[in-house]
Automatic annotation (TrEMBL):
SUPFAM superfamilies: Ribulose-phoshate binding barrel. InterPro entries: Aldolase_TIM (IPR013785), PRAI_dom (IPR001240), RibuloseP-bd_barrel (IPR011060), TrpF_fam (IPR044643). HAMAP family: PRAI. It comes from the Bacteria. Pathway: Amino-acid biosynthesis; L-tryptophan biosynthesis; L-tryptophan from chorismate: step 3/5. PANTHER family: N-(5'-PHOSPHORIBOSYL)ANTHRANILATE ISOMERASE (PTHR42894:SF1). Belongs to the TrpF family. GO terms for molecular function: isomerase activity. It comes from Companilactobacillus keshanensis. This is N-(5'-phosphoribosyl)anthranilate isomerase. Residues 4-186 form the N-(5'phosphoribosyl) anthranilate isomerase (PRAI) domain. Keywords: Amino-acid biosynthesis, Aromatic amino acid biosynthesis, Isomerase, Tryptophan biosynthesis.
Length: 191
């Protein structure tokens, strides 16, 4: 069964919506941008989040101590590297028993390989651009990039990822939409 991560959570109402839908993962974006959250905020939100839902922290070229603080505080369980982080950093985090997601943005001229626990393919920097799924040369553990209720079944059929990652695809007027979250979580869990 394909799992699903709802990313870009920022508010108590986002957490309430996610708790009602029960996705497998919840993502908090520590990097600068529209969905940016501070650690203190994530600590509070994590306490409200259903304990069955695994929390993920998204970082872009952050210092290692910032990422470790987020894990040790209990705010997150998995570190997602969404910048230009090196394999040396991945190995260092793994040596510290951290679970790591390494993101590769397409198109890329890098050879896609990593020691991270999970490899994620995205269309860019969370800009909502859709990937040409049929052109992927490898099967990522996690697929992201403009996925919503209308194309999630096609994404799963064409790519067969272990996890679908959705953020803007469950928003209305730049806010998380509880109905869209519930619909896509239900659909993914049924596929």
């Amino acid at each position: 069964m394909t799992k699903i991560k709802i990313c870009g959570l920022m508010t108590e109402s986002d957490i309430k919506a996610v708790n009602q839908a029960v996705p497998d993962y919840a993502g908090f974006i520590f990097a600068e941008g529209r969905h940016h959250v501070e650690l203190e905020q994530v600590i509070k939100l994590r306490k409200l989040l259903d304990p069955k839902i695994i929390s993920v922290g998204v970082f872009v070229d952050a210092p290692i101590n910032v990422m470790l603080e987020a894990v040790y505080s209990g705010a997150i369980s998995i570190i997602q590297l969404h910048g230009n982080e090196s394999e040396k950093l991945v190995d260092r985090l793994k040596d510290l028993d951290m679970k790591v997601i390494q993101v590769f943005k397409l198109p890329t001229n890098k050879i896609i390989q990593t020691h991270a626990d999970l490899l994620m393919i995205d269309s860019g920097s969370g800009d909502g651009k859709k990937l040409d799924w049929s052109s992927l040369l490898l099967k990522p553990n996690i697929l992201a990039g403009a996925i919503d209720i209308n194309n999630v079944a096609t994404a799963i059929k064409q790519v067969a990822p272990d996890i679908i990652d959705v953020s803007r695809g469950v928003e209305t007027d730049n806010k998380k939409d509880p109905l869209k979250i519930k619909q896509i979580v239900n659909k993914v869990h049924k596929l």
